[in-house]
Amino acid sequence: MCGRYATTADPASLAAELDARDETGDDESGPDYNVAPTTSVLIVVARHEHGASETLVTRRIRRMRWGLVPPFAREIGKGAPLFNARSESVATKPSFARSLRRRRCLVPMDGWYEWQVEPAPDGKTRKVPYFMSRSDGARIYMAGLWSAWHDPRTPGSPPLLSAAILTADAIARLSNVHHRMPLILPPDRWDAWLDPDSPGHPDLIVPSREQIDRIEMRQVSPKVNSVRNNGPDLLAPDDGCGEQMALL
């Protein structure tokens, strides 16, 4: 799964990196080292742009609520936020099926956190946090879905934009920390995944072993357990574990 992540991206840098239009209107956008569900996050979409002689598909950078709100929802806040969508069943789940057909997105991040259940000194168990990121420090783009929700109680109000991150069964070394993982989308799949004219294809959401092999893992401070803590120190190796963890 993916329930927390870190990002240092800002709309301007993403727009330049992806040849996209910044539609956030952000004056300032600082790094967030402990992104949690229901937070407003940066999302990459592709939408139609109607010109004088032709219609183009252009990438856009938008802010959305992390935790998808289905179009048929009557109100927000009932039940747990839908911040993850299982790739194996996303096409048949009413909450996600419509978004899968026409509203797919990318979720940029520096890396994500997972918690491994380990024995504790008192004989019980504890959850130990690990941070997963590219070994070369490059940004990671996760496959996601988005939705536009209109509050039925206030007709004519602006829609709430929201998104979810796709997950899959963990493979290779990642499975030693958690049995699920967010779905990293390689660049050669971006255009097909974002294309609003395409219904999407199952082969686009198959985990890429090449992308997984580029991920390194390190144990980090339990301070990340609290969303009140937010700073680059959350990414540092935990005391007593200074070297990168070798998960075989």
Automatic annotation (TrEMBL):
Species in which this protein is naturally found: Rhodococcus chondri
Keywords: Covalent protein-DNA linkage, DNA damage, DNA-binding, Hydrolase, Lyase, Protease
Disordered, as annotated region: 1-34
Protein name: Abasic site processing protein
Residue ranges of the TM segments: none
Enzyme class: hydrolase
EC number(s) recorded for this UniProt protein: 3.4.-.-
One Pfam assignment: SRAP
PANTHER family from the UniProt entry: ABASIC SITE PROCESSING PROTEIN HMCES, DC12-RELATED
Family: Belongs to the SOS response-associated peptidase family.
InterPro entries from the UniProt entry: SRAP (IPR003738), SRAP-like (IPR036590)
